[in-house]
Amino acid sequence: MNYFELFEIPVQLKVDTATLSKKFFALSKQFHPDYFANESDEVQTDTLEKAALLNKAWKTFQSTDATIKYVLQQKGLLEEEEKYDLPPSFLMEVMEINELLMDSDEPGQLDEIKFSITNLENEIYAPVKEIIENYKDGVSSEKELLQVKEYYYKKKYLDRLLRELK
């Protein structure tokens, strides 16, 4: 059972967690181990597994990036620890930001660098915005998912830069 089946929702790249919260709490109650204390070991184990799966799914759905990663993995388009070659033009932009970061010695420069990273994030999101927000399993193409995969790796790179600024 995958996360979407568990929550009884269609596969999507961007999940509205506000609408899922009621479902999460209902399922949490349904699979709470205390309700199965007098059941067989097999039933208790199955319930614990479902509760763990529910918590992992909920955590994944809290982040669009984590949801994208999960869907790409489910579709066999992304592997754990995969080495992905980003386009040289993107790497050049990131290198310029890194150089600014190394040369920055004034507090105001960090704000400028954050602004540059945010602008670059917006640039890389624009081409995949419609795909991510309107993804339909079985309708959206593999080509579109591969575009999302490239976005995912670029975004991951930029998130790392932002963490370094903190």
List the helices and strands and how they pair.
Layout: H1 3-7, H2 17-30, H3 41-61, H4 64-74, H5 88-103, H6 107-125, H7 129-133, H8 142-165
Silhouette: elongated
Mean pLDDT level = 92
Note the main sheet. Answer: none
Q: Which percent bin holds the helix content? A: 55-70%
* Rg for CA atoms: 20 Å
Order of helices and strands: HHHHHHHH
Sequence stretches where pLDDT stays below 50 over 5 or more residues: none
Count of discrete structural domains: 2
- Separation of the first and last Cα atoms: 38 Å
Strand content: under 5%
Which class best fits the helix and strand makeup?
mainly alpha
How many DSSP helices? 8
User: In total, how many beta strands?
Assistant: 0
Describe the structure in your own words.
This protein has helices at residues 3-7, 17-30, 41-61, 64-74, 88-103, 107-125, 129-133, 142-165. With 166 residues, it is mainly α. Helix 5 runs parallel beside helix 8 (142-165).
What is the gist of this entry?
The chain has 166 residues and is mostly helical.
